[in-house]
Amino acid sequence: MLFILPTDTCYGIAGDLFSSEDYHMIYALKDRDFSNRLAFLVRDFDSLREYAEITEEQIDFLVHYPHSWSVVLKKKSTWNLPEFLDPEIYNNISFRVAEICVPANICNCIQYPLFLTSANLSGKIESKTFAEAKESFPYMEGYNGWICDRPPSDIFTFWDNNEVFYFRKNSM
User: Fold this and answer.
1) 170, pLDDT greater than 80
2) Residues contacting 119, CB < 8 A, separation 6+
3) Which of 79, 94, 97, 143 falls between 20 and 30 A from 49, CA-CA?
C-alpha cells in the first residue's frame, strides 16, 4: 500500500519494495516514465550494507555528509531483487537512508525496504507540505510530519578510488 511520507527535502510517496502492485501504481499515479528508476529507502546503514556494495569509508562519508543525499550504489550480488524488477536496470540503485532523511517518530513506524519518489506528478513542483502532497494524491494516506524546506538531495556515487562523482549537486 502506498503512503505519503515527509523526508528532509520534500514529501514522498513510499511503497513496499517487494510489491509489484505498489511499483506499478507509483508509475501510474505519477504518470512517470518507467525509464526513470525509483529510489530505495532503507532503515539504516546496517540495511544499506545488506543491499549494496559499500565500504566503511563510504559509510563514514555518508554519516558525516552535511546535506541531503541519495547515493547510487551497485546492488550486492547476494541480494535478490523482487522478480518484477529488471536486474540490469536495477543493478545500480539510488538509496536513501531513513535514519538520516525521515523524522525519527515516523522512521520507526515503517516497514522497510521501500520504493521512494517525490509526492508530485512527474515534471511538477515537489510537495513541501502534507497539504500539497494531498492535493496531488487526495486518496492517499500518510504521515503529516513537518514542512520540508531543504533543496533536493545531492545525488552521487563513489568511483573505485572513493572519489565522489555527482549526478546532481544542489548544496553549495
Assistant:
1) yes
2) 4, 5, 10, 11, 12, 13, 126, 127, 132, 133, 136, 137
3) 143
Nine cell digits for residue 41: 529507502
Distance, in Å, from the CA atom of 146 to the CA atom of 121, rounded to the nearest integer, reads 20
Residues 98-118: tens digit of each pLDDT: 999 999 889 889 999 999 999
Phi, psi of 76 (to 5 degrees): -65, 135
In the chain, beta strands by DSSP E? 3-6, 11-16, 39-42, 69-74, 92-97, 114-118, 154-158, 164-168
CA distances from 39 to 57, 94, 161 (A): 22, 5, 24
Number of helical (H) and strand (E) elements in the chain, helices listed first: 6, 8
DSSP state of 146: -
Domain ranges in the chain are 3-168
Distance CA 146, CA 129 (A): 7
The runs of H, that is alpha helices, within the chain are 20-30, 45-51, 56-64, 98-101, 104-107, 130-136
C-alpha 143: how far from chain center: 16
Q: Looking at the domain 3-168, which fold is it?
A: DHBP synthase (3.90.870)
